[in-house]
Amino acid sequence: MVKALDGLEIRPVRMSQMPGNKNWLLFFDIGEDDPRWPRLRALLHRWGRSEGSVTTSFSKQEIDSARWLEIAAWHHGYPQPKEGTFGFREATYDLSDWCRSCDIGRKQKAPFQMKREPRWGRNSLMQFVWIYDEIFATPDAWSRVFKPSGVGCRAVLNTKGVELKTVVQLVVEEPVGLRADGYASARCDQCGRTKYLPVARGFFPALRDEPSGSMARTVEYFGDGAQANHGLLVSQSIVRAMVDADIRGAWFVPVAEVT
Ligand SMILES: [Zn+2]
Questions:
Q1: 111 φ, ψ (degrees, to nearest 5)
Q2: How far is the CA of 228 from the centre of ligand 1 (A)?
Q3: pLDDT digits (tens, 9 = 90+) for 65-91
Q4: Which of 27, 133, 160, 248 could form a disulfide linkage to 230, CB 3.0–4.6 angstroms apart?
Q5: Which 3 state secondary structure label does DSSP give 50?
Q6: Any bridge partners for residue 18, and if so which?
Q7: Burial of 31 (0-12, 13-18, 19+ CB in 10 A)
Q8: Ligand 1 centroid from CA 104, angstroms
Q9: Residue 105 C-alpha to ligand 1 middle, in angstroms?
């Protein structure tokens, strides 16, 4: 395999040894417009290997000129309690409208819980694994960037019910609809509701309405399998404020404009 890859002159960006055996896992990062991609793809097919995941890289100009952007943040840990049995669901959400099959319909009823204070490092924003429609921030990041833009916050607790000191949840409640016709979607055969597949290529779908605030939550759900999350959007003014305040830990997908 390595010989075939050498022939393509593609170097792995990362290597790690599989736990329990001596096989190496090689990670590659390559553009779909790279002339070597069709040959690498053919090799992966021949070896029965996954093509991995797709993301789109946006230029600084594309980010800077977008009026609205989808925001995602550093993934840090699991919501509590009882992560092994998804105990956060009952503890955090009203599940009366929730569908177990597609995950649509959770409504927050209580503060999120974490095991302990986050280990922020250089980051100031984070998301939980599994929950991609909530963002958590350091109190400092909230007061410098989000509070001045009218974004509220709420407390985060540890599993004993004690309020954590170094993290708050951003309150993003304004709903915004998307012009998502034509994007791939799936209808749940249990509840009949629809969610869109994650948008991996290109811009985020254009907005149907103009939000009045500087953050909004899409009416539509995104996800595949037993997972569904709203999209979270920020205005360009928030992105600028984050850059000015050197707030790290977030990345953005520009929202398409209707032409
Ligand atoms: Zn469903």
A1: -65, 150
A2: 9
A3: 999 999 999 999 999 998 888 999 999
A4: 133
A5: coil
A6: none
A7: exposed
A8: 6
A9: 8
